[in-house]
Structures are given as C-alpha cells and as structure tokens.
Amino acid sequence: MICDNLTVRDGILQFGGKNTLELAERYGTPLYVMDEDKIRANCRTYRTALADAFGPEAMPLYAGKAASFTKLIRIIKEEGLGLDVVSGGEIATALRAGFPMEHAYFHSNNKTDADIEYAIENGIGYFVADNREEVDAVNAIAARFGIRQKILLRLTPGIDPHTYAAVATGKVDSKFGSAIETGQAEDMVRHALSLANVDLAGFHCHVGSQVFDSDVFLRASEIMLGFIAQMRDRFGYTARILDLGGGYGVRYVESDPVIDIPANVALVGAFVKETCRALSIPLPAIRMEPGRSIVADAGLTLYTVGTVKRIPGYKNYVSVDGGMTDNPRFALYGSSYTVMNAGKMDQINDFSCSVVGRCCESGDIIQENVSLPSSVCRGDILAVATTGAYNYSMASNYNRIPRPPVLLISAEKNSETVAVRRETFRDVIALDED
Ligand code: LLP
Description:
Layout lengths: L5 E4 L2 E4 L2 E2 H8 L3 E5 H19 L4 E5 L6 H9 L3 E4 L2 H9 L7 E3 L6 H9 L4 E4 L2 H14 L3 E8 L21 E2 L4 H11 L3 E7 L9 H22 L5 E6 L14 H19 L5 E5 L2 H4 L3 E12 L5 E5 L8 H5 L5 E3 L9 E6 L8 E8 L8 E5 L20 E5 L4 E6 L4 H5 L5
Parallel strand pairs: 4-20, 5-6, 5-13, 6-7, 7-8, 8-9, 9-10, 9-11, 11-12, 12-13, 15-17
Antiparallel strand pairs: 1-2, 2-3, 4-14, 14-15, 14-19, 16-19, 17-18, 20-21
Helix pairs in contact: 2-9, 5-6, 8-9
C-alpha cells in the first residue's frame, strides 16, 4: 500500500483502521478524511529527529499552508511544534486554536501594513522578512507599538532543487526572499542591524517543496552558514537562528522513493555541526518547516462515482462528485496520485481511465491513466490517497461547488470528529448582497 495507514479487509479499503465505505456512508462524499494518529506520529518524527540531530534548541515549525484548520493547529500545539503562518487568516486560525504565538513565524513575500499590525497586535513570535521594504515596515509599526520585534531575514541561496519548477523557491530570480549573490542580503543585514525596533534573530531559506534529496539541504546550509560567518566578520553579528525551510517529500505513487526522515535529518545535522566548527561559529538554533510531510499521508479523499463514459477506440472517463475544487493539484502541476476503488480492492484493475471531476472545465482531472476494476459503476466509492497536504488548503468554490468537510479520525482515541463541516449552498451564497 502507498501509505502504511491503508489496509484491506474483505476487499474493502480501510484507512487509519476505519472502513472507508462506512465513512462515506456516514458522512457523505466528497469527504476529506484525516488520520490524527498519523499527523501526531509525523510531528514526533520531526521533533525527535531535529532534537537528536541539532540538540534541544532545534524546533520543527509546521507549515500551515499545507492544511490549516482549528483542530489541526491544536494538534500541532499539543505536539510541541512551532508554526509557519503566511496570512492573517492563518494567524486567525492559530489564535482560535490557542496556539502560543511566540512560536509562530510569519512568512509571505508581501505582507500588508494591516497584516503586520494584526500579527504584532497578536504577539507573533517572528516575522520572516522577505525584503528591505518589509524590514522598514515592520520597524515602523513595531515602533508605534513600542516594541522590538524579532525577525528572520529570508534569503535565497541560489539553489535549484530539481523539483517542480512551479514550487522551486530558492533560486536567485525567485519572487521570494533576497539574494545572497547580488549583495542584497548583506545590505538587508546592515540595514536591519541599524534599526531600533527590530531584533535580527537570524536567517531563513527555503529551497523547494517535495524534496527527496538531503543534498539540497546540505548545499543550502553550507551557503547559509558561510553567510553567517561572513556577517560575523563584517558586522560582528552572530545569527542565533537558522531556518532551513520546508520539509521532505512524500510518496504519492509507488514509484516515489521512501524517505527515512530521521536518517536524513541526522545527515544534515552532522554536516551543519561540522561546518560550524570549521567556520568557528556557534551552532544556531535550527528550524525546519515541514508541511507536506506532516499531513499528506494523513489524508485520504473519498468520492462517489457518477458517470462512467466509455469512448470506444479512444478513452474512458470515470466522473466523481468532486474534482479540481477539492484537489486542484493535477490541474496545476500534473501531480500524481494513487486512486483506488474502495469497495472492490479484491478485483483486478483492468480498466484504464481518467478520473475526472464535475466542474465545467476539461482540465478538471484528478488523475489520468488510472487502472480500476472494469466493474466500476455509478455509486462506487473511489479513494484518492495522500491528499492531506495542499488539497483542503487549496480548495475553491469554482462553479459554486460547496467544499467537502474534513473528518478527523483516530484509532487510538477510537474517535471520528468533524473538524470542518461540509459547506452548504447557503454558505456558498452567504456573502452575496441582494
Ligand atoms: N516553508 C516555506 C517558506 C515554504 O514556501 C513552504 C512551501 C514550506 C515551508 C512547506 O514546504 P513542504 O514541507 O510542504 O514541502 N501548493 C504546492 C506546494 C507549494 C509549497 C510552497 N511552499 C503543492 O501543492 O505542491
């Protein structure tokens, strides 16, 4: 199975110990199901791995952009992770979850003055400042509040992570961060150190998402530690924090590699410590910001099959009751997913088809070249695995389709909890003025 929380019993797909057909029956489809035990296990993997590799000062920050809702952020809080937020909305979610805001780091390449005020008002721990204008804006607003605001500077080390071009963010020509290579990073440090209302705590970089190769982190940390040493020599300034950005990749299909996170983090840890020794700089408190690898394999989407269309000599379509509105990742990135017929797991998958959604858009595809049993028919339940990251958080109301609910399940607690309720037509029209 593609994820270790998926099993089969009597030909029926089980997720996190639950019968998926029964879940579909009880809660309706489309349905996002999230396995709380898996989320917690993933959090613990990162916490332990970072503590072992970098010592007790290290802390993983969960990247809320992967999925953010109150009950999830509460789990992140209980597991002792920090939080990477990218908008006022994510801050509002953290506040509602009672998240300790001193452990929240505010990203985004373009924070408005209103965003900055809202974050400061609510005690945000750190701004991850993208550029010099932002440093000035934070300094000015912090001055008004009479505080000294901790910031990290987001730098681009100039690395192409050989991942999807659309999610590669560490290159010099990126819209994110300020480049080391062009001298803008050094200029920002000089500037930040001269300001009264910002406290420069350290540096951040993010080289890309869905990364499987630790080499990317090694190269990024080498450049960042080199920069830290250079800033010490130039300005007598020593960074206290180094944030290495997003986490490792996840498996969407069988051909994706299995990644040993503790072993990989240990590798980065050994390299970072060795490099610090060589450069005679103290080991900074390390941060990593995994999003996908905390929640992706904790998620599964269930759909009901509607039309099965066979076009003889061409192709076959299996339409489901969701689509790009709940999972736009194939439409955006051509992302791979594993699709299963949840009630027919003991049948041979001998029918090749495209699994498509119900939107008025031919690009509304969940996955192409899917193999399902040829008995697939109206009323069957399809399951798409590894949908916990960047599905709910990227969902839309295109065609005024209501978004599915998120059901949290836990075998350990023997619980099923609706974490986000299903949208209704009423919700969809709620903001319209008459
Ligand atoms: N930190 C920063 C600064 C980031 O930009 C990102 C992701 C992360 C952390 C989390 O990375 P992760 O551990 O999830 O790989 N919508 C795209 C992904 C965009 C990721 C953007 N930044 C997708 O669906 O694949």
